[in-house]
């Protein structure tokens, strides 16, 4: 059997007894460990909660977006305004009122060259600063670029391209441009690409005037940098109609004057003379 | 389990103290039976409570909340004690510090001979003998503390008693 002899059992019972309680040192160690472990538990629980909350928000967002797209269908994007300058000019001449709604949604162009608002100069520059950024592009806008230009996002690359195009034109000898003017049968050498400025300026002019303004400076479409001329003319006509605030009028006219300062073709000279006259009256 | 849950929820250290008060005696008895040393047994029990605090979430949530804290603690303390025994064997004490074995024919008391024989028993057998004959526990209680079934404890005790009888007979003890 498993019973020890009585003598051995008696000796075992008289043996060293097991301790019945922990001493103070071990108790204190347990308390410290308990405190540290609880802080770890708490931080782990917070992280878990944060992670769950973030996951729930993400799932809810995705679900909401999915439901919305299912209910409403695909979001339609606005049709980009892509038109060539001659077409737009022709349309402006035939039916100016047709372009008015489009013009109202487009910002006023102040500085064609740099697309900067030039703080402190006032006039159209300040007006441009209050408006969304204006797209200054030197090549036809298509697709996404066109929609971005309408929406106010100005891609940096076309601006750089416009500036380099301007420098290239300035570097051309005057004889070359004269030769271009003397040969109307040939395709226009400079053929300024229809820019957003070119698209916007006639529309702005049409929107600003219910009727055709008197004594308009006719600007042929193959005139070099006619976009600047159009913008300067729009500024001048706005000033003549008294649509510019008195404080903004002269700075705007000066900005328009500076805009066409380097141009020597007859429309530019005539427009500059009118701008000088307008500046001299005040 | 509610005490441990309270500790987890609000960090109540009083709940841990209550658990220590409630289970320390049994755990110390088991650890001492295995280790044979009071201070090392206290270290093993402390290790068990520290692990309980560290793994409280697992203990509370383990097995659908049906885990017994006492049983869990007993298992942890037993394993800690066995680990300490293994480490102790891996680094044995120098010969001069060991308990000297009395030479044959020397007049030594029966208690010393008996404890020397108990020390020579395997770990589980020694613990079973201590819990059975020193603390007077039943087989199922011993089995719960040592992680064995009651029948297995009976077998273990039979082997241990046989060894002790033989040793006592060899030592010439008066049984």
Description:
The complex is a heterodimer of chains A (282) and B (175). Chain A is 61% helix and 0% strand. Chain A has 282 residues and is mainly α. The termini of chain A are far apart. In chain B, helix 2 (13-35) packs across helix 3 (38-54). Chain B is mostly helical and 175 residues long. Chain B is built from nine helices and no strands. The longest helix of chain B has 23 residues, at 13-35. Chains A and B meet through helix 1 and helix 2 of A and helix 2, helix 3, helix 6, helix 7 and helix 9 of B.
Which residues of chain B sit in consecutive blocks of at least 5 with pLDDT less than 50? Answer: none
Strand proportion of chain B, as a percent range, falls in under 5%
Radius of gyration of chain B: 19 Å
Give the helix level of chain A as a range of percent. Answer: 55-70%
Distance between the ends of chain B:
48 Å
Largest interface: A-B, 35 and 48 residues
Mean pLDDT of chain A: 68
Structural class of chain B: mainly alpha
The 3D shape of chain B can be described as elongated
How do you describe this structure in short?
The complex is a heterodimer of chains A (282) and B (175). Chain A is built from 12 helices and no strands.
Question: Key features?
Answer:
heterodimer; A: 61% helix; B: 9 helices; 74% helix; 0% strand
């Amino acid at each position: 059997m498993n019973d020890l002899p009585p003598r051995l059992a008696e000796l075992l019972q008289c043996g060293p007894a097991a301790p019945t309680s922990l001493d103070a040192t071990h108790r204190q160690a347990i308390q410290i460990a308990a405190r540290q472990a609880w802080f770890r538990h708490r931080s782990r629980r917070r992280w878990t909660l944060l992670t769950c909350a973030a996951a729930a928000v993400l799932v809810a967002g995705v679900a909401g977006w999915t439901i919305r797209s299912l209910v409403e269908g695909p979001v339609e994007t606005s049709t980009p305004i892509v038109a060539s300058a001659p077409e737009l000019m022709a349309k402006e001449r035939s039916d100016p009122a047709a372009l008015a709604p489009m013009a109202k949604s487009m910002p006023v162009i102040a500085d064609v060259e740099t697309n900067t608002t030039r703080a402190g100069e006032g006039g159209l520059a300040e007006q441009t600063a209050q408006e969304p950024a204006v797209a200054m592009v030197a090549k036809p806008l298509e697709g996404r670029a066109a929609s971005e230009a309408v929406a106010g996002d100005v891609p940096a690359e076309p601006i750089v391209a416009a500036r380099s195009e301007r420098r290239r034109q300035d570097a051309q000898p005057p004889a070359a441009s004269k030769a271009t003017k003397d040969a109307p049968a040939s395709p226009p050498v400079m053929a300024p690409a229809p820019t957003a400025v070119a698209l916007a300026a006639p529309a702005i002019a049409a929107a600003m005037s219910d009727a055709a303004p008197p004594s308009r400076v006719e600007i042929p479409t193959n005139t070099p940098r006619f976009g600047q001329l159009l913008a300067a003319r729009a500024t001048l006509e706005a000033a003549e109609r008294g649509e510019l605030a008195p404080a903004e009028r002269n700075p705007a006219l000066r900005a328009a004057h500076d805009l066409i300062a380097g141009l020597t073709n007859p429309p530019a000279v005539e427009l500059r003379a009118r701008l000088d006259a307008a500046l001299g009256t005040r | 389990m509610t005490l441990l849950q309270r500790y987890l929820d609000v960090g109540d250290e009083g709940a841990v103290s209550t658990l220590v008060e409630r289970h320390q005696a049994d755990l110390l008895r088991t650890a001492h039976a295995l280790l044979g040393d009071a201070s090392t047994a206290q270290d093993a029990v402390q290790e068990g409570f520290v692990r309980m605090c560290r793994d409280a979430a697992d203990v509370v949530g383990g097995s659908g909340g049906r885990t017994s804290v006492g049983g869990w603690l007993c298992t942890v303390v037993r394993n800690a004690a066995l680990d300490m025994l293994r480490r102790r064997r891996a680094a044995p004490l120098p010969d001069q510090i060991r308990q000297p074995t009395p030479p044959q024919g020397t007049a030594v008391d029966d208690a010393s001979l008996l404890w020397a024989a108990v020390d020579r028993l395997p770990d589980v057998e020694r613990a079973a003998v201590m819990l059975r004959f020193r603390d007077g526990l039943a087989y199922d209680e011993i089995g719960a503390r040592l992680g064995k079934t009651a029948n297995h404890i009976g077998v273990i005790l039979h082997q241990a008693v046989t060894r002790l009888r033989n040793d006592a007979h060899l030592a010439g003890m008066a049984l």
